[in-house]
Structure formats: C-alpha cells, structure tokens
Write a structure and sequence with these properties.
Length: 378
Amino acid sequence: MPWEQPYQERPVAVNQGEIEGGVVGGMGERRAPTSWIMLRLVELLLIPRFAGARARDTWYSVRSYEGKLRSHVNLLPGSKMLKAMLAACTLVLLLSSCQSTGRGSSFTPEDRARFDEYWQHYHLSEADWPEYREKWLAEGEKSAAVLIQSVMVDYVESFDENDLLRHDRARTELVELFPASIPFLAEGLIPAQDIVRKQFSEVLVHAGARAVTPLSKKIDHSDPEVRRIVIVTLRKIGHPSAAPLLEKRAKAEKVWRVRAEIPGALIATMGAEAGPSLARMLRDDPDAFVRRRAARVLGGIGSDLFVEDLIKALRRAERELTQIPAAGGNSEGVTDFEDLLVSLHAEINDLCDALEDLTGRGYGKNAKRWLSWWEGRP
C-alpha cells in the first residue's frame, strides 16, 4: 500500500451475498488484504455504531499503538501474531458491544438477499444503479445506513487496492447520497489511520455548509489528529458558519500541530475579519511554527491594520535571537540550540516577508528600521 508495507494477501471469494454487521458482500471475485479490511469494517461500522464509549476508546487506543508495537517488535503487517492480537481485540470489543446493546442485526435473511441484489447492480450495471439506489433508500433509515456504510467500505478498500476507477465511483456515490451520508463520513474521521481520515475529509468538502454541524461535534475530540483533520476540512469548506468554532478552538487548543492549522482555517472562513484573532496568535502563541503560520496569513490579508503587530513580533524574535546564548531556548517543543536558531531565523524571515507583502516596503530583517518607517509615516 502507498502508506504502509504491503500486507500479505490471499484470494477472497465473496459470491454469497452475505451481510455481516450491516456491510454488504457479493461484490465479485477479487484479491483483498483481509486483515486490513477486517480493521476497516470494525472501525467504520461496528465500533462507532454498536460499541459503548469505553469500548470505542479502547479500540482506537489499540489501533493507535499498533504501528508503534509493530515497529518495536518487528511485526510485519500480515504476520500471524499481529492478526491474532487484532482479532482478539475485535472479539472482546464485539462481545462488549453485544452486552451493551442487547440486540443484534434487525435484518432478515430476505432483507440481506435483497440488499445483495441491489449491491450487485451497483458494481455490475451503472446505468441501472440509480433505480436500485432509490429502492434501497426507500426502505428506511436503517437500510439507507447499510448502503452508505457499504459504499464507505468500498471507497476505502478500493483505495487500498489502488483501483482508481472504483475509488472515484464510490466517492461520486457518497456525494450522491448527501445529506444522509454526511454524519457517517464525519464519524469516519475517527479511525486511527490518517490516510482514512483524509479520504473521508475529501468527500465532506463537497458537502459544503451541510458538513459544518456534523464536524462541529468532532472538533473537541480527545484525539488531536481528529481535531486537526476536522480543522483542515473546515478550512477547505470555507463556510463562515465554522468561524466561531475555530476561534473557540484556537483559544482552547493545547497541541501545536493542531493550532498550526487554525490560521489558514480562520482566513478561509472569515476573510479580513480574522485579523484580530490572527494577531492574538502572533502575539501570544508559545510555538514559533504557529506564529509563523499566523504571520504568513496576516501578510496576505491586505490591510495595514496589523503592520504594528508584525513589527512587534519581529522585535520579539530579534530579542530572543540575541538571548539564546544566555537562556538556551524557550520555544515550546524546541530545546536544542541549533533547532532554536533555525526556528527563530525562519520566524524572522516569515515576519519580514509578511511586512513586505502588506506594505510594499523593503527594510530587511531590521525591526528598528521597520518601526522608524511606521512611526514616521505621514
């Protein structure tokens, strides 16, 4: 796969039209990385839908540490030991899910056979598919959920198999299923693999303002990578209704990697009105990289209202640069002497670039010259 070592694969025949946990089979003969697909099915469908909060948190923790465990004990992705560990986790979680819900699938064998017939038309007869899609959706919310989740699995699975035509088809279908598919896609941002989040984020962007409310429920998620992809998705959507969420997150966020995404999202959703929030991040954020992002965005805002903020930030960066031998560094996450030097020089470069973009002037990397010009202007 593009982002991991290749999984050991074996032929998988799925001609029985079987539905397990709401996922439709019967998609024809193909080769599939079965251990990876098992994880996708559990993460996308079973865990979010049936497991309690504790079971969900346990599962996502296990998946987050899977890669670290593999790297430390040299477990190949397709190894029997890794598959056994993940299968055991799956079994425990599914048992917990059944105990917490007290119910199983509500679909009869006739329902499953009918859904499988519909799904065959999705893969084999694109011209007839809209008619069968409408029949499927007309059967109610639970039946629609089976359709949406099946297309989501096909979307991820086809990417894993590098089947671009099938992948594009699934993305188009998820867009066709708006707005019903939007909450499911937002839930799909939670699995541990960043590549899965990115895939569903791309589809959610097509939903525009309709995706803001479902995404707002994930912006305070306990996993910082989930918060980050939510902010990235909101930036790409660029709808003003997301601005209050982003401003609130900017003040509360503790992880610099997540805060670094906020300046671009603010300007995309607020335009020039984002200036005060960006100036606050430039002034108060403890991380140099976040301040650099804020400076670059301010440089393109097209208003000289924030020139003084940029000059003050430049003076501070120059002062910190002269104090390095005595202090040894004070930027969040930066303790090494050389790293701090590089970080401060990069910040100074970005601040000067932003000043030049805003003013059309060129006073170099010298805060005194910038301040003298600013104070002496007519």
